[in-house]
Amino acid sequence: MTIVYEKEYDLELGIDYEKTAEKVINAALDHEKCPYEIEVGLTLTDNEGIHEINKEQRDIDLPTDVLSFPLVDYESPADFEKAEEFDDYWNPDSGELMLGDIVINLDRVRSQAEEYGHSYLREYSFLIAHSMLHLMGYDHINENEAAEMEKRQEEILVSIGITRD
User: Fold this and answer.
1) With 0-12 CB in 10 A as exposed, 13-18 as middle and 19+ as buried, what is 77?
2) For residue 88, what is the DSSP state?
């Protein structure tokens, strides 16, 4: 597994950002039974940085907590079989499946953890789990999809001992 890691913002929350990301990403891949080695981009930024990306990429003129940019199109969530049919999904140098990019707003990690009454680690990990599910084809457009994503996010985090406590 390769995580292309970029830290644009130096907010310290007492989290080993890279180690935690690797742990959550691996747990998400295991949970969804991904049979391949993968590559994921992870950028850590602030309110201003994510606002700019959100406006540029999604035409939404607001900051947000996390953005996900999947590179794989799925017929159904976590249906990895179709990926083999498309050369564009694979890094030609490493042979890894390029799932996509995650952008996390560390300002929101701090404020949302405080708002929800849980740790910075829990909020950071939650946003990565959430985004990984998006990179594997899940969405939360309707109530059923949202419930399914919430269930999977919680299962991923519990599997590595990260709870709301």
Assistant:
1) middle
2) G
